[in-house]
Known about the structure:
It comes from Qipengyuania pelagi. By secondary structure, the protein is an alpha/beta fold. 42% of the residues lie in helices and 14% in strands.
Amino acid sequence: MRAQIEIGRQAGGQTVPVDVEELLATRLLVQGNSGSGKSHLLRRLLEQSAGLVQQVVIDPEGDFTSLADEFGHIVIDGGAHTSREIETLAARIRQHRASVVLALDELEVEQQIRCAALFLTALFDAPREHWYPALVVVDEAQMFAPAAAGEMAEDTRRMTLSAMTNLMCRGRKRGLAGIVATQRLAKLAKNVAAEASNFLMGRTFLDIDMQRAADLLGMDRRQAERIRDLQRGHFLGLGPAISRSPVAVEIGSVRTGGKNASEGLMPLPDASGGELEALLHTDLAQAAAEPAPPPRPAPAPRPSAEIEQAIAASAAVERPAPGDDETPDAASAAPAPSREDAEEGLERIVRELAMEDGATFQSQTSLFRNFAVRCRQAGVPSAHVDMMQFRRLFAYASSGLDRLEPGKRETIEELAQAVPEDVLAPYLTLAVNAALGRTAPDEDELARAYGSSSPSRIRRLLDHLERQGLIVVREDFGGERTVTVAGLETV
């Protein structure tokens, strides 16, 4: 299979293609100073090849999470998992050929480096039967393959250098094609940069970086001055997957966007110096005397069963700007609902969401985003509800737990406290049916609760719940299955 994508155009309008199959075999190095358009280039490359090959993105700034909305990438929140879970997820990503974005923006720099190193090593160590072709994009690669130790611990540096070297030097035979982007070639370990055969060089100003870029492109010192004069979004490309001779390319448009702040000018506040001084100094001593807010606790690790449900989705929902008929003053003047009204509003919104056709087959990211938007529209506070709490509320609503008498409902809720979120909805469905006297579960109802149309997954689900001691499954000679939920009386 040969598949070419268009990365951009030359000055004369000719398209500049990239051969994805050749790229898988020869790897790519991207260089450019901050603001030169590296992230835009990587986004264009990922969008154009999304339907052709599996993609794995190491994203230290969280810029590529928007790929999930448009192209179905799964976002892994690196800060929401233990080391062992990160390694397990990486193995499942190779097994199931899932395109993912490993978002590391919630971690400190050294934690980002260790998390990425564990993740890349697990991708590399996947069993041979899972060596499917995949593009592995590493943004800000100088962090993960530094030329010098810097301030990071020596064991961390050895770990990450080993992972990046394996990706670029030995990854090809395992189907892994490294695409590394860096602000400065001088900061990137030479044994990592040297393994790339394709290059896209953007604007850079330091002589040492210009000379190294010119050497890689086969340009002399006089021609290297072109690199300093490149405009934003313009790159010089060379390599078997791009062109046999250096070619200037303007990167094409993209469909998704990052979360970077706008770089354009904005009007300054329309206030006098005295008003601004008053804003800065009002109650300053009182505010400074208040204790500092406690550090944000690390998110609790979450158990996982299947890759689609094990991957943590941290969807940050942007608060919409006031519309033409809503001013900030009017919005802030609206009375806050009481706690009881707020809880009732949350339950109503979750229940309405759970009762929609096909809701359980949607991703948790989409459901959580839809939930937050509906709460905003209804004026119901939802900032205190995180993804884990939402998953439990959604499972309660979709299982029909509210149909039971208060006593039985409270018993099931108490039993469900120890049940992982990824299997909570089908467990509650079984418990509700058992409480209603239906000991032979309807597989279609279980499939709807689990968000799957595969009978084999339902059988594996029942086996998993039984191994966990949550249910007891008995099957007679006629094939009739009876399920008893541990802790509930058999009706």
